[in-house]
């Protein structure tokens, strides 16, 4: 394999090229003519008067390794901050490996061979609402998909990443429960409730949250006398139930629900006071194809 090794200093540049063609040499995945290399050589001589750099490149690897030997310049401050964040992440990973993975090695080795979760969770992408942290799901317990405002589009809307995950979770993993988790202060629901009736926008967010239009209309009909924040709170819960009804538009979900093999649940997390409300869709009392009627059961409030 060809190898190029460059060493730069404030006074000299040395370059060795091994087994390269007569007219061209390959450096970092690009071909340069020999006269271009000579010009590059001269530019290095003229311009390098700062810290010594050592660059190594192997043809089998497209990346570069850059090592700053002298004191770093102030211009790399933002990069150092980025590295600090990943250093913290590295410590968290190593703590996970030591305290959880190695302590439960047999369990994780079993997971490496396959998964059999009982739950599928559809949650919001909001950074404050992590279902594993809130509800204590451990690796292998829940198949999770997250999107803006935890919406489930109806079957007729066509393919999305959400219903692709649904298809895999229901038909392949055969989960027994689908839990749609909404939350307080949801930006996606606020965007939905702030839309005009005749909305025409190139915004990806608005084009997505329009999936919840039925929840918006029912909210306006029910609490139009309240202010926007109060309407949003109502819609946050209403949209969960609309998503549960949308789940029943998928034939393979409806079939498993009717056979008692799958249950549909809603959950609402209020992170302002750390409370959680949970309920189950009463599918026997649902008439989603007739005016979108529904009823719920097994309602619980955790505080």
Q: How would you describe the overall organization of this protein?
A:
This protein is α/β, with parallel strands linked by helices. The protein is 39% helix and 23% strand. The protein is built from ten helices and twelve strands. The strands form three sheets. It has a six-stranded mixed sheet, covered by helices on one side. β1 and β2 form a beta hairpin. α6 packs across α9. Pfam families: Pro_CA. Its cofactor is Zn(2+). GO terms for molecular function: carbonate dehydratase activity; zinc ion binding. InterPro entries: Beta_CA_cladeB, Carbonic_anhydrase, Carbonic_anhydrase_CS, Carbonic_anhydrase_sf.
Low-confidence stretches: 1-76
Kindly name the structural category: alpha/beta
Radius of gyration: 28 Å
Characterize the quaternary organization of these chains: single chain
Shape: globular
Helix content: 25-40%
* Helix and strand run: EEEEHEEHHEHEHEHHHHHEEE
Mean pLDDT: 79
DSSP strand content:
15-25%
User: How many strands in all?
Assistant: 12
Please give the order of strands in the largest beta sheet. 8-7-9-10-11-12
Q: What's the main sheet like?
A: 6 strands, mixed
Distance between the termini: 64 Å
User: What is the number of helices?
Assistant: 10
Organism: Olea europaea subsp. europaea
Family: Belongs to the beta-class carbonic anhydrase family.
InterPro entries: Beta_CA_cladeB (IPR045066), Carbonic_anhydrase (IPR001765), Carbonic_anhydrase_CS (IPR015892), Carbonic_anhydrase_sf (IPR036874)
Function: Reversible hydration of carbon dioxide.
